Amino acid sequence: MPTPPKGPRLGGGPAHERLMLANLAAALFEHKRITTTVTKAKRLRPYAERLITFAKRGDLAARRRVLATISDKGIVHELFTGIAPAVENREGGYTRITKIGNRKGDNAPMAVIELVLEPLSPKQAVVKEAEKAAETAAPAPVAEEAAETESPESAESAESAESAESAPSAESAEEAPEAEEKK
């Protein structure tokens, strides 16, 4: 999992921190949202998102890797069959941290960390697809696609513009002999 930062741990040694993060992740996957301190929530986010990424892969090796961290098979099953399909279209950002104020007893800053299970909005998906298409497509096909997607009203205006272009060409044909005479 993510390498722990140097310096003080979340209440003990590195082994205690790993167990604490694994338990917090298991609770998050079980309840879909948990309330904890801001520091623990910030440390939990990359840990939980990496486990979700493994679950999105869905193969046996990924399942065993998650089971090495979270020992409850029921929670791992929920992660692979419930949470991973719900976030399969997302490319990250599976969790949301919301600060909720300070705890009454010791004034510790508290936060709610929750899974973002809402489907990706169509607007964001369309924008990402358009960006990918713009990167891979040549400029000429983009103009053709724009011409194909024109409304009938704009097609009529395009036809009238073409007829207007043909009319001046007839006038320019009449002006051509006059230009030759001036020479």
Describe this structure as you would to a colleague.
With 183 residues, the chain is mainly alpha-helical. The protein is 64% helix and 11% strand. It contains seven helices and three strands; from the N terminus they run H-E-H-H-H-E-E-H-H-H. The protein has helices at residues 14-31, 38-57, 60-69, 73-86, 122-136, 139-148, 152-182, and strands at residues 33-37, 95-102, 109-115. Strands 1-3-2 form a three-stranded antiparallel β-sheet. The longest helix has 31 residues, at 152-182. The protein is globular and about 55 Å long. This is Large ribosomal subunit protein bL17. InterPro entries: Ribosomal_bL17, Ribosomal_bL17_CS, Ribosomal_bL17_sf. Residues 135-144, 154-171 have a biased composition (Low complexity). Residues 128-183 are annotated as: Disordered. Pfam families: Ribosomal_L17.
Calculate the mean pLDDT score and round it.
Answer: 80
| Count of individual beta strands | 3
Distance between the first and last residues' Cα? 86 Å
- Tell me the fraction of residues in β-strands, as a range: 5-15%
- What order do the SSEs take from the amino end to the carboxyl end, as H and E? HEHHHEEHHH
The description of the largest β-sheet is:
3 strands, antiparallel
Global geometry: globular
Portion of residues within helices: 55-70%
Number of helices: 7
Oligomer: single chain
Structural class: mainly alpha
Radius of gyration: 30 Å
Low-confidence stretches: none
Spatial sequence of strands, sheet with the most strands: 1-3-2
